[in-house]
Amino acid sequence: MTWLEDNTDASSIRAAVVDLNGVWRGKRLPVAQTKKVISEGARMPLSISTVDIWGTDTDDNPLVFDTGDADGFARPTGRGLIPMDWLERPTAMVPLWMWQEDGTPSPVDPRQVLARVLERYKAAGLTAVCAMELEFYLTDPAEGQPMPPRSPVTGRRLEGDDILSMSEIDAFEGFFADVYDACAKHDVAVDAAIAENGTGQFEVNLMHCPDPMKAADDATFFKRFVKGIARKHGFAASFMAKPYLDLAGSGLHVHFSVLDTEGRNIFDNGGDEGTDVMLHAVNGLIEAMPESVLIFAPHLNSYRRMDPGAHAPTGICWGYENRTAAIRIPGGSAKARRIEHRVAGADANPYLILAAVLGAALEGIEAGNLPVDPVEGDAYSLDLPQLPADWGRAITLFENGNTNAAIYPKLMRQVYALAKRQELAQFAARMTDFEIASYFEVI
């Protein structure tokens, strides 16, 4: 409770959960409620986890209509207070997750979905070690449409791709220093930051962590820090998968290895090729990939990122040290042999991404089948089985997937698909200016 002692002028806190879209939802509470929320949590409707991207209840949602929109318990995750230093007055957030009235986990809370997968790892005597790489854009909030930001040093708007530019990173040093300070305060271990392919696009790597739940928490907090601190510095930050049609999309790549009860990396055979167990995990990921795409590409905009040759995988394949493949086995020390999953966009929910990746890998390990041969060269130009290229197809595959039935609770699959179909219908019901201009006077 040091934060309370150091911020006697604080008047409120936030009690919040992460919904299936990765959006924080919750309550503003008087600061006097802080001790109670940290120790007990707060009551919230179970359906809060299942609303669509606009925060609207989904039609036919059984959590709303069949139960009278019953409450559950939003309990503390154990991370304590997360100060929101970008707000005008001292404010902190208490991260929570959802439980049912009888004390069992909510099957539709994304953090609980990941916990369910991790229990299977524990039962198998395995521990996953995970790291995430997140890409995002800084933009100029004064413009109606996304526009590159102005350099804090020169005042000029950024132009062109400037990958790995030290000058660009240095120009935004004040922003990055505040982000890294916020991460240090809250035990979010961050590694390198780089300027990426797009104008105003950056990537930050989070350190490997032997606790996948903490890794997902850290990624979720990191996104919150970046967006809030960007506003403090006069920018807007977006983890949208493809904010610009003509620039690179933003991804969220997952690196992971698996340890046995002795702490040995079961992917390490001392060589570059990795163990058969690693290959079994790769096969599980390959087999589950089509039905998992809705997790990795959850929004309409997500599919704009997944264009062949646009630095996002479209073919279902794997390869050694090959960034054009959906699944990459990085080189380097055999002790650090790991799998990189490159499909997800930065707009996806970190809890659900790790549930999908680790769940499919475990299915593969348990099945014990080997994958097809690894690809070499440019995977974009090869004749490969393709990921679903449209949102509607991805929803259908997610609903009906055999592997998904083993990874996700049935109710979660049902309400997630309902929310996505509702979002798809809302977008389809909107007529664009381009559509009118193309047809109104022409036909």
Structure notes:
The protein is α+β, with helices and mostly antiparallel strands. It has two domains: 2-106, Glutamine synthetase, N-terminal domain (Ubiquitin-like (UB roll), Roll); 117-408, 2-Layer Sandwich (Creatine Kinase, Chain A, domain 2). The protein is built from 14 helices and 14 strands. The strands form two sheets. Strands 7, 8, 9, 10, 11, 12, 13 and 14 form an eight-stranded mixed beta sheet that branches. Helix 6 crosses helix 7 (212-232), helix 8 (276-296) runs antiparallel to helix 10 (350-367) and helix 8 (276-296) crosses helix 11. It is globular and about 60 Å long. The mean pLDDT is 91.
Tag the structure with descriptive keywords:
globular, alpha+beta, Ubiquitin-like (UB roll), 2 domains, Creatine Kinase, Chain A, domain 2, eight-stranded mixed sheet, 14 helices, 443 residues
Please summarize what this structure is:
The protein has 443 residues and is α+β, with helices and mostly antiparallel strands.
Q: Name the CATH architecture of the largest domain.
A: 2-Layer Sandwich
Return the structural class.
alpha+beta
The total domain count is: 2
Order of helices and strands: HEEHEHEEEHEHHEEHEEHHEEEHHHHH
For the report, how would you describe the main beta sheet? 8 strands, mixed
The helix content, as a percent range, equals 25-40%
CATH superfamily of the largest domain: Glutamine synthetase/guanido kinase, catalytic domain
Mean pLDDT: 91
Please give the number of β-strands.
Answer: 14
pLDDT under 50 segments (min length 5)? none
Binned strand content: 15-25%
From the alpha carbons, calculate the radius of gyration and give it in angstroms: 22 Å
**Span from first to last CA?**
67 Å
CATH class of the largest domain: Alpha Beta
Q: How many helical stretches?
A: 14
**Remind me, CATH topology of the largest domain?**
Creatine Kinase, Chain A, domain 2
Rough outline: globular
